Amino acid sequence: MRPAPAGEGRGRALVPQAHPDRARRRLPAGRAFVSDAREGRVRGWLRALLRLTSLRLRLVTVFALVALVAAVSVSGIAYWLNRDAVLTRAQNTALRDFRKTLADQATTLAERPMCDDLHGMAAGVAENALDYQVVLVDEIADGRICQAESDPARFRLDMVPAQLIEAVHERREGPAEYHLYWQRVSLGGEPFLVGGTRVIGGGPTGYMLASLAPEEDDLTSLSWSLGIATGLAVLGSILLAQAAATMVLRPVQRLSDAAQRLGEGKLDTRLEVRGADELAELTRTFNSSAASLEQRMQDLSARESASRQFVADMSHELRTPMTAITAMTEVLEDEVDNLDPMIAPAVQLVVSETRRLNDLVENLMEVTRFDAGTARMVLDDVDIADQVTACIDARAWLDAVHLDAPRGIIARLDPRRLDVILANLIGNALKHGGSPVRVTVREEETPAEGQRVLIEVADEGPGIPEAVLPHVFDRFYKASASRPRSDGSGLGLSIALENAHLHGGDIAVRNAPDGGAVFTLRLPREARLPEREAAVAERNGGGPQAPEGEAR
Questions:
Q1: pLDDT digits (tens, 9 = 90+) for 364-389
Q2: Average pLDDT of 181-206?
Q3: What value does the CA radius of gyration of the chain take, rounded to a whole number of Å?
Q4: What share of the chain is helix, strand, coil (3-state, %, to 5)?
Q5: CB burial class (10 A; 0-12, 13-18, 19+) of residue 363?
Q6: What is the strand order of the sheet 181-187 is part of?
Q7: Mind giving me the DSSP string for 170-204?
Q8: CA 317, CA 313: separation in Å to the nearest integer?
Q9: What is the pLDDT of residue 552?
């Protein structure tokens, strides 16, 4: 603390001090450093926090962090301002009193005091002081240095920091040769204020020691209060953030639920538009998109229904003339040997194309039954090996097919529909993959699906291009880059898959690692009729349906 210019007075005057609230000289305090490792951990924690997937949690977390930073900043600023004010007020009060008391006692001190005079002055200063202890140091009459302590047990010269002693004894230029200095120190874990100055004219040097423990206790209580207030502020911000997040996310959740219903096929899903903010605009956009999607799906459904109705009508309309044409071609085929050799090839071509057209009509009629849900099954106990053998033998494929089918695998299936499936799969393999075709029959059992029959048909061809694999069961799909062009209708594999689905089974296709396509048919050992189909079958007497063609 720097003194002001000396004033006039009787006897020895202390070096006057400047206004205590403008203390400009003090010994340097220690410097605090923030650990780089701690900063790195904080940054890593923040990055991990920002990766949280829950939008609600992220909103609440951001609100809480903002509130925490704001509360800690305000509390920190308030604490340091109050700390500075409290400590400054305490130290200025003590230093002013020390200066005044020392000045009053110095007027009664002799020019060449004795050591007892210094002890008496020290006791007088301490007696009139505001709870602080003093040490006076001066050269007495016999030339010795005397140290007079008001309470040697509580304050001695060796407790004064060396830097403070050096600063007090440093002579300055100007009317005020010496200044009043102070320093906050910690002794035994307790904070103290140490001050020191010299009397003008070569008088004694005085040091004082005042405890700052009461102020430290007040600051500790203040820090606890600010900490509790900060915690309550953060808790309140979390509650407010939760409420705000709920208000913000409720429309988002409504949109999510509506989008889920839309994905489930409920195209009439709409949301009520509330307000005029961005979320309301998003809701309007959703409703508009849903309406447009519903309209497009209705148009597509109408077109598909019209297309199916056209195919059904066309199939039925063609069936009657095709019956007559087929009968006539059969007559021509029987008389082909009696016809002119120039006409016979034309007759054979007509017979072949008529059969192909008849197969196409039958396939189209079967497709219409699948679409209308009127396809029926007639279940019977079937030996799979016998059924596969009969299918191959009926089409004269015995020399081109290698069969591995153990007898005794019995399944309750529709024999006619199983024959259609096998005929399409094996015929497809022979037509596009070449012989020999390997047909393997085995059974498997899984906890989820129970006992099932597996029929695997593998050819020796080049396989199916990866781009074609997802479409091999599509209706009328015949595109193939690696296989020769077929004269089939493109319905055979589609009909085979629909028949497998009727049984509760499926057909999968893949390319073998060493080449060739592999079709795997999986059927349950006990196929069951749906209640509606069972009722229809019972009402119709379970009669067989018209056989499907073998064209693909």
A1: 777 777 777 777 888 889 899 999 99
A2: 80
A3: 53
A4: 50, 15, 35
A5: buried
A6: 145-149, 132-139, 205-211, 190-198, 181-187
A7: ---SSS-----EEEEEEETTEEEEEEEEEBTTT--
A8: 6
A9: 36
Residue 302 has a CB neighbour count (10 Å cut-off) of 10
Cα gap 78→7, rounded to integer Å: 38
Centroid of chain to Cα 269: 28
Contact 63, 244 (CB under 8 A): yes
CB 476 within 8 A of CB 489: yes
- Is the pLDDT assigned to residue 3 strictly greater than 70? no
Among 470, 474, 509, 506, which residue's Cα sits nearest to residue 490?
Answer: 474
pLDDT of res. 365: 77
216 φψ region: left (φ > 0), alpha (ψ -120 to 50), beta (else): alpha
Query: Residue 262's pLDDT is what?
Result: 85
Q: Give the 3-state secondary structure of 82-135.
A: HHHHHHHHHHHHHHHHHHHHHHHHHCCCCCCCCHHHHHHHHHHHHHHCCCEEEE
Give the residue among 9, 11, 10 at the shortest CA–CA distance from 111.
Answer: 11
Q: With CA atoms as reference, report the closest residue to 87 among 188, 222, 216.
A: 216
Task: Please give the Cα distance from 339 to 341 (Å, whole number).
Answer: 6
Torsions phi, psi for 508 (to 5 deg): -120, 150
155: left (phi over 0), alpha (psi -120 to 50) or beta: beta
The predicted pLDDT at position 257 comes to 86
In CATH terms, the fold of domain 20-27+36-229 is: Beta-Lactamase (3.30.450)
Compute the distance between CA of residue 200 and CA of residue 110 in angstroms, rounded to an integer. Answer: 14
Position with higher pLDDT, 179 vs 422: 422
Domain definitions of the chain by residue range: 20-27+36-229, 290-359, 375-539
The two tokens of residue 1 are: 């603390």
The pLDDT tens digits for 155-171 are 888 888 888 888 887 76
Helix-helix angle 115-128:55-106, to 10 degrees: 130
Which amino acid, residue 60?
A: V
Closest CA to 57 of 279, 247, 245, 252: 245
Using CA atoms, how far residue 122 sits from 106, 276, 288, 395, in Å, is 10, 81, 94, 131
DSSP label at 479? -
CB 505 within 8 A of CB 496: no
Q: What is the 3-state secondary structure (H, E, C) of 421-437?
A: HHHHHHHHHHHHCCCCE
Q: Can you tell me which residue has the tokens 């399944």?
A: 411
C-alpha 369/C-alpha 367 separation (Å) is 5
Q: How far apart are CA 406 and CA 391, in angstroms?
A: 16
Q: Which CATH class is domain 375-539?
A: alpha beta
* Mean pLDDT for the stretch of residues 59-69: 82
Q: Write the secondary structure of 207-276 as one string of H (helix), E (strand) and C (coil).
A: EEEEECHHHHHHHHHHHHHHHHHHHHHHHHHHHHHHHHHHHHHHHHHHHHHHHHHHHCCCCCCCCCCCCC
